[in-house]
Write a structure and sequence with these properties.
- This is NAD(P)/FAD-dependent oxidoreductase.
- Belongs to the FAD-binding monooxygenase family.
- Its cofactor is FAD.
- This protein is of the alpha/beta class and 499 residues long.
- It folds into 2 domains: 289 residues, FAD/NAD(P)-binding domain, CATH 3.50.50.60; 186 residues, FAD/NAD(P)-binding domain (3-Layer(bba) Sandwich).
- 30% of the residues lie in helices and 23% in strands.
- The chain has 14 helices and 25 strands.
- The strands form 7 sheets. Strands 1, 2, 3, 4, 5, 6, 17, 18 and 21 form a 9-stranded mixed sheet that branches. A 5-stranded parallel sheet has the order 7-16-8-9-12.
- A hairpin with a 2-residue loop joins β13 and β14.
- It is globular.
- The two termini are 36 Å apart.
Length: 499
């Protein structure tokens, strides 16, 4: 095994979260050493992986962008290529790109309390490489990169056309003049349908059940005006907070007055869809707003495609694939040349890295997440999970800021490591991600648990997390701190979710 290089902080993942984390650390600690290990051969993570037509953000870029680097383009709902360029430019301008080791897939990490360090194993060109670090920071997101979720469709082997999952889009796939069926109703499907409809003969969105879909302006008029008047730096925080407030109010109204939000969504649909369109069947979900993530379409492009006859929505279930397309439970058949299975993601906690603490394997479901970013019983370790009701980057920035505060606290007090300990028997376990989306429910049992109250609850309020992670004391009675000299004899705190 080669390697043995030691750094203060080792970051896993060079996507949106990893590049942001590296920049935060570098800005706060110019002399501290760090590396970013990236399994793929380029910067960008999700935004380099997904190449399907029309790929774009489902959050506005004034909140999806980094707090420290203003989004300056006119479109607030940006395409994937623009987001990828933004991430890469951030890495280049900050010099983060010089600290990235590409083609290094982290497979395991072992913590030693006696040495107060992590020993991390990665695979590079099939060969194991070893690194050690004082603090391990996982920014790998929470889904599998090697495969998306595709149900077992009966008869798919008989289909004479092309079946493709958006996560692995063939760059040579030409859908011009072809009949396309997109299976799904989430953010990926509502993005694909209008994009493919521009060149396809026709695109059908086939869904088992509807999703809440709202139209938003592709450009933020206030943001563009303020940039002209105030400049990028001054305008950015104003627009960012405006969008945080609007998103928060919509979410809170959805939870407290769901009928009001349903009425708002329905009125918007009736204005944008053809007269007499069956909104109840195709765009009225059975669940409440924000039980699952709401879909936003820039300038109502999905509705324009439907109104123009280039796209349609079918709400039904698949019985089987046929040589020419799909047979549905209703008896109807859909002819297709291309079928896109926009049927969701597969989740993977911590990028599949095996964690061990003092020789004992860490089983994520037996741990509890502290402030939604550390694990009970796992020292000097942090991870990033963004909001399900808002921009991922809002939380990623706050986690990075907290990690900086935590490292400063360790330095100031002369501690070598810290670990969250749940020794309160009244804290009861809860699902880490309180979200009803299918891709979450399928894999939730593989993830850490959350707790019934702070600091073990994964919050979904940016304002609350802002106060908690940026301003409240690091030493809150739940974190335990130790020096290396004492660590060897003190024993390891409990790894279990219950303490």
């Amino acid at each position: 095994m080669t390697g043995g290089e030691h750094v203060d902080v080792l970051i896993i993942g060079a996507g949106l979260s990893g590049v942001g984390a590296a920049r935060h650390l570098q800005q706060a600690f110019p002399r501290r050493t760090y590396l970013v290990l990236e399994a793929r051969d380029t910067i960008g993570g999700t935004w380099d992986l997904f190449r399907y037509p029309g790929v774009r953000s489902d959050s506005d870029m004034h909140t999806f962008g980094y707090r420290f680097r203003p989004w300056t383009r006119s479109k607030a709902i940006a395409d994937g290529a623009s987001i990828l360029r933004y991430i890469r430019d951030t890495a280049t301008e900050a010099g983060v790109d010089r600290h990235i080791r590409f083609g290094h897939r982290v497979v395991s990490a072992e913590w030693s309390s006696e040495q107060a360090r992590w020993s991390v194993e990665a695979l590079h060109d099939g060969e194991p490489v070893r690194f050690t670090c004082r603090f391990l920071y996982c920014c790998s997101g929470y889904y599998r990169y090697d495969a998306g979720h595709t149900p077992d469709f009966p008869g798919v082997e008989r289909f004479g056309g092309t079946v493709v999952h958006p996560q692995h889009w063939p760059q040579d796939l030409d859908h011009t003049g072809r009949r396309v069926v997109v299976i799904g109703s989430g953010a990926t499907a509502v993005t694909l349908v209008p994009a493919m409809a521009e060149r396809a003969a026709h695109v059908t969105m086939l869904q088992r059940s509807p999703t809440y879909v709202m139209a938003l302006p592709a450009e933020d008029a206030l943001a563009n005006t303020l940039r002209r008047l105030l400049g990028n730096r001054r305008a950015y925080p104003i627009v960012r907070w405006k969008n945080v407030v609007v998103t928060t109010l919509l979410y809170q109204l959805s939870r407290r007055r769901p009928r009001v939000v349903k009425s708002i969504v329905r009125k918007g649909l009736l204005r944008r869809l053809p007269p007499g369109y069956d909104v109840d069947t195709h765009f009225t979900p059975r669940y409440q707003p924000w039980d699952q993530r709401m879909c936003f379409v820039p300038d109502g492009d999905l509705f324009r495609a439907i109104r123009g006859g280039r796209a349609s929505v079918v709400t039904d279930r698949i019985t089987e694939f046929t040589p020419a397309g799909l047979r549905l439970e209703s008896g109807a058949e859909l002819d297709a040349d291309i079928v896109v299975t926009a049927t969701g993601l597969r989740l993977l906690p911590f990028g599949g890295v095996r964690l061990t603490v003092d020789g004992q394997e860490v089983r994520p479901p037996e741990t509890m997440a502290y402030k939604g970013m550390m694990l009970s019983g796992v020292p000097n370790f942090a991870f990033t999970i963004g909001y399900t009701n808002g921009s991922w980057t809002l939380k990623a920035d706050l986690v990075s800021e907290y990690v900086v505060r935590l490292l400063r606290h360790l330095d100031t007090r002369g501690h070598d490591w810290c670990v969250p300990c749940n020794d309160d028997p009244t804290v009861t376990p809860r699902p880490l991600i309180d979200f009803q989306a299918g891709y979450v429910l399928r894999s939730l049992g593989e993830f850490p648990q959350a707790g019934s109250r702070a600091p073990w609850r994964l919050g979904m309020s940016y304002a609350h997390d802002l106060i908690t992670l940026r301003y409240r004391a690091v030493d809150d009675g739940t974190l335990r701190f130790a020096r290396r000299s004492a660590a060897a004899t003190a024993g390891r705190p409990s790894n279990g979710a219950g303490g």
